[in-house]
């Protein structure tokens, strides 16, 4: 698997040569698992396609700037179910292409007109620090709305045929945030709970105390590989322990609350 640091250097070289034709970058984790990345936006979003014997599971559908469905069809011939780690614009942008999708109960209202940001604010985020593809019109961008075909709860199992994915409710970044745990392979898909960069836990819809509890939950798992939703893919399971301990120390110091500031820990940080 090619790491993000290598990919970013290559993409910068390609951009200088004027050959940045593709919006998506595909990396293979194993013969049945793929990363679909969007490196031309500063958020460097990663979606994950897991192919089973019966169907495929797409974890997050990205920014919605380009058609992820066309990329997914190159990687599977199975029926596709989409699942969101959480209902933020940069994780459900391509949901419109997948009528079969799952979500957590705590964020259903965000799929039904109650998302706390205006479409104008979301559109500003879409074009922020982004090398947009030719022909893209931000005024046509819409925040996905719809009802899931299945409402997920903690410890649900998603069986895709020969592969079982466990649903972990991990609130903190958002009320219904989910991680996905494939025990047989040791894969943990962490969404926005864990990644290398500044973690966002300052929005009114975030919960720093719940964030700590979610980190305790995932840090207890025998994880072999961590797959985040943003930025560097060069991320080791030990970061789960470091993050848990940092949040524990913030709590002990009386700083685990909104408005306490930004705290940096080398390869990651948190904005509270």
Task: Please describe what this structure looks like.
The chain has a 7-stranded mixed beta sheet. The chain is of the alpha/beta class and 272 residues long. It starts with a helix and ends with a strand. The protein has a single domain (4-197, 207-237), classed as Ribonuclease Z/Hydroxyacylglutathione hydrolase-like (Metallo-beta-lactamase, Chain A). Helix 5 packs antiparallel against helix 6 (238-252). A hairpin with an 8-residue loop joins strand 9 (164-169) and strand 10 (178-182). The radius of gyration is 18 Å and the shape is globular. The protein is built from 6 helices and 15 strands.
Topology:
Layout: H1 4-16, E1 25-30, E2 33-38, E3 45-51, E4 56-59, H2 68-72, E5 80-83, H3 89-92, E6 101-104, H4 119-127, E7 150-152, E8 157-159, E9 164-169, E10 178-182, E11 187-191, E12 198-200, H5 208-219, E13 225-228, H6 238-252, E14 262-264, E15 269-271
Parallel strand pairs: 4-5, 5-6, 6-7, 11-13, 12-15
Antiparallel strand pairs: 1-2, 2-3, 3-4, 8-9, 9-10, 10-11, 14-15
Helix pairs in contact: 5-6
Based on the model shown, name its key terms:
6 helices, 7-stranded mixed β-sheet, alpha/beta, 15 strands, Metallo-beta-lactamase, Chain A, 5-stranded mixed β-sheet, 272 residues, disordered N terminus
Helix content: 10-25%
- The CATH class assignment is Alpha Beta
User: Which runs of at least 5 residues are low in confidence (pLDDT < 50)?
Assistant: 1-6, 8-20
Q: Which structural category do the helix and sheet elements fall into?
A: alpha/beta
What's the alpha carbon Rg, rounded to whole Å? Answer: 18 Å
| The CATH homology group name | Ribonuclease Z/Hydroxyacylglutathione hydrolase-like
The string of secondary-structure elements, in order, is HEEEEHEHEHEEEEEEHEHEE
Integer average pLDDT: 93
What is the count of distinct domains?
1
> What is the overall shape?
globular
> Mind summarizing the main beta sheet?
7 strands, mixed
The strands making up the biggest β-sheet line up spatially as 1-2-3-4-5-6-7
Query: For the terminal residues, how far apart are their CA atoms?
Result: 33 Å
Number of DSSP E strands:
15
Strand content: 15-25%
Instruction: From the 3D structure, determine the CATH topology.
Output: Metallo-beta-lactamase, Chain A
**Named CATH architecture:** 4-Layer Sandwich
The total count of helices amounts to 6
């Amino acid at each position: 698997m090619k790491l993000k640091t290598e990919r970013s250097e290559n993409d910068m070289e390609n951009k200088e040569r004027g050959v940045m034709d593709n919006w998506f970058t595909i990396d293979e984790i194993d013969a049945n698992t793929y990363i679909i990345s969007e490196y031309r936006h500063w958020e460097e979003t990663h979606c994950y396609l897991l192919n089973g014997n019966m169907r495929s599971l797409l974890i997050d559908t990205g920014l919605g700037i380009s058609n992820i469905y066309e990329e997914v069809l190159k990687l599977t011939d199975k029926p596709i179910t989409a699942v969101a780690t959480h209902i933020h614009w940069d994780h459900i942008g391509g949901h419109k292409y997948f009528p079969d999708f799952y979500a957590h109960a705590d964020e259903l209202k965000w799929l039904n007109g109650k998302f706390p940001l205006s479409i104008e604010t979301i559109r500003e985020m879409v074009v922020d620090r982004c090398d947009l593809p030719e022909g893209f019109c931000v005024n046509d961008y819409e925040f996905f709305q719809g009802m899931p075909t299945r409402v997920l709860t903690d410890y649900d199992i998603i069986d895709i045929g020969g592969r079982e994915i466990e649903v972990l409710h991990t609130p903190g970044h958002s009320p219904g945030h989910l991680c996905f745990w494939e025990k047989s392979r040791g894969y943990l898909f962490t969404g926005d709970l864990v990644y290398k960069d500044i973690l966002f836990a300052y929005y009114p819809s975030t919960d720093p105390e719940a964030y700590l509890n979610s980190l305790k939950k995932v840090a207890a798992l025998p994880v072999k590989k961590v797959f985040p939703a943003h930025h560097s893919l060069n991320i080791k399971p030990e970061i789960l322990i470091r993050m848990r301990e940092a949040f524990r120390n913030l709590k002990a110091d009386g700083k685990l609350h909104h408005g306490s500031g930004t705290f940096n820990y080398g390869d990651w940080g948190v904005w509270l």
